[in-house]
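In this section we walk through a basic example: taking a raw amino acid sequence and producing a predicted 3D structure, encoded as discrete structure tokens. The instruction is simple. Fold the sequence below.
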Amino acid sequence: MSNEQRVVLITGGAQGIGQGIAAYLLGKGWRVAICDKNEAAGQRCVTDMKTDGSDDLLFVKTDVSVEADVREAIEKTVAWGGRLDALVNNAGLADPETGPVEALDLAQWQRRLDVNLTGPFLMTKYAVPHLRKTQGSIVNMASSRALQSEPDTEAYAATKGGVVALTHALAISLGPNIRVNAVSPGWIDVRARQADSPAEIEPLSATDHQQHPAGRVGVPDDIASMVAYLISPEAGFMTGQNVVIDGGMTRKMIYEE
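The resulting token sequence is shown next.
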């Protein structure tokens, strides 16, 4: 089946890594539905990214932590596309620092759980019946912070660790009909794809790039190209895995001199 007939749903697709994935898959011929809570950013994506005269991009305003929103997003996507071949659970609260754990407000902790972990569960729950019909696949966006941490990031790290565990659990439960994998990005420079992106973006420093064993900070296409592979037939023997894309930083031994 050509990509022109295949439908992918990307949560958090109106900005950041999600927008990068949406643009990349559109370029590869996929029909793309994006869900995002930010309606203004979503509508800008439709204006800026949609091919003239085509019906290759859909935006659905969605809060992935709200079950009714999730159900509606899946229904609208399938009604529009006629099918669902892939789900990319990318939506999340990205700011990892929440202060000292003894001062961490329970509402902050719970909100990160609701969006970063319950969101992928809910989206998967309602997408599975449609993905079974197409022998489709799921990609969950985790983080290198599921594997290592900076201080005061307990809520974020816990949710991303949960995403990794959810991924392998789903892979076992849903196989062989549906493959489920995760991607764990490191530092990805998404400033140009943020809704509030400044007109002029200050270049990153040489130190920013050189501290990475790969020699540079990541860009959204680094993640998008892996997502494209994971949802393609070429990755048909790959499921339950967490692919770390971080320029080698999690393999770098660092001691203070």
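Looking at the output, two observations stand out. The chain is about 40% helix and 15% strand. The mean pLDDT is 95. In the next section we compare this with other chains.
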